[in-house]
Amino acid sequence: MATVNSSQAQMDVPAPLPGSQPNSPQPTEDLTEDVAEKSRSVVPYLLENSPEFRELSDVRQQGWDAPEGDKYFENLRQNADKSDKKTATYFYKFMNTIGHELDKATNAFKIQPVDSTPPAILDICMAPGAFLEIALKKNPGSHALAFSLPVSCGGYRSRLASGLNVKQVFLDVTMLAADMGVDQIPGGHEDSENFLPRQLDEGRLFDFAICDGQVLRQHSRAPYRESREARRLAATQLALGLQHLRPGGTLIVLLHRLEAWNIANLIWMFHKISLVRLFKPKKGHAKRSSFYMVATNVESQHPEAVEAVRRWKEIWRIATFGSDEEYGEMTLDKDQSVETLVEAFGPKLVKLGKPIWKTQANALAKAPFMKKPK
Description:
Layout: H1 31-39, H2 43-49, H3 51-64, H4 68-81, H5 85-106, E1 120-123, H6 130-138, E2 143-148, E3 166-170, E4 206-211, H7 229-243, E5 245-256, H8 261-273, E6 275-279, E7 290-298, H9 303-321, H10 324-331, H11 338-365
């Protein structure tokens, strides 16, 4: 995940993670993650224990051998890069369809009140706003705080309906240094003039948080960010989303490639502190590795949650201010072993991933760019 926003208006075409696109070159920002994957991978376990993942791996290999796949996904990326009014309207409708599909499957957008206080919603990367609009309309009397990258910086246009109780703040969330625990900016830093003051009081809590922003290629940024932006955005969204979620609240997160080491660990952590459900919409996501994690009844003050927030803020700090050596060390994530993860969480990961991998395998097998057997 990466530099700012565009609530998923990216039509599910972010900076791709390894294996997320058939026959697609791996971006620079994933090279250090690939090192970790080679030394810490759950893929062998999944290949042995999940027929659905084995099937997907076979289909992906066929996709890598299909040159037409590059052109197919590049066209999607080019369409996602546009930010004109027509494209904004299309993406809003696109995301609205996905949101309703997600809600029908999980009922995630319905907030369970804890008292008579009006429900509060936090959307960290809002535009075009379809998910937030669904949440506000499903919860009468609710109000929201929404961050979104300005259109002038390459962000998507907001299409929120009028009359909704929402405060929209247009900024680059990856520059929220104070909210991410950094009050003193190192002298001479490339972005020293761009870091932002605190936007969220430490004790401010929300009942529902949406974390589905993706890196936007048309967003101009300092060179040091290009190889680190995905981690900066992911860390920002997760840290602020979980830190400011009331105990018992709901978090929706857009993720990619469930079998990736860092994603499997993330799901495992949330499994310890919440009820986790995974959902892959058929609209726009089927051929891709993307899916949504819906975490409900989140114990946001649990020691695991507090430590996760601390860890994400440290990742953001290193990705923003650290040397290449520090950043490389950080991505190796030496805290867990493969053996520990698969013993404690492997069977549950296989169960959670079954519909995700099956849906993608079926969609890729039918893709127009796939080589057909002679």
